[in-house]
UniProtKB/TrEMBL annotation:
The keyword Nucleotidyltransferase does not apply. It comes from Ancylomarina subtilis. Keywords: DNA-binding. The keyword tRNA processing does not apply. GO terms for molecular function: DNA binding. PANTHER family: CYTOPLASMIC PROTEIN, CYTOPLASMIC PROTEIN-RELATED. This is Putative DNA-binding protein (MmcQ/YjbR family). Pfam families: YjbR.
Length: 117
């Protein structure tokens, strides 16, 4: 997966926007204004995604490319090096998991608004 594929996959999801809220390097994807993925466009490709805490630990133990999220709550965020060692399908599963965690945390009003998009 390259940056264009990552971007296209994220933007294809319902209610997703992209922005550079921190600087010109960190691209952030949000659903209903809540972050679910961050990536630095000027470094080796990686992504930070939200993750269930128990699963986060399992993934870190199973994959050397998965580390606690840099500058994020390390209990809930993983940083994943996208270096070709992990399949695109697996990366997409983790993106979906992050997106779904955020959607589940939205208020019922925002969830209904998202469904009507």
């Amino acid at each position: 997966m390259n940056i264009e594929e990552l971007r296209d996959y994220c933007l294809a999801k319902k209610g997703v926007t992209e922005s550079f809220p921190f600087d010109e390097e960190v691209l952030v994807f949000k659903v209903m204004n809540k972050m679910f993925l961050l990536t630095n466009i000027n470094k080796d490709l990686s992504m930070s995604v939200k993750c269930d805490p128990e699963l986060a630990v399992e993934l870190r133990e199973q994959f050397p490319q998965v580390q606690p999220g840099w500058h994020m709550n390390k209990k809930h965020w993983n940083m994943v090096a996208i270096d070709g060692a992990i399949s695109d399908n697996q990366l997409k599963e983790w993106i979906d998991h992050s997106y779904n965690l955020i959607v589940a945390s939205l208020t019922k009003k925002l969830q209904n608004e998202l469904l009507s998009m």
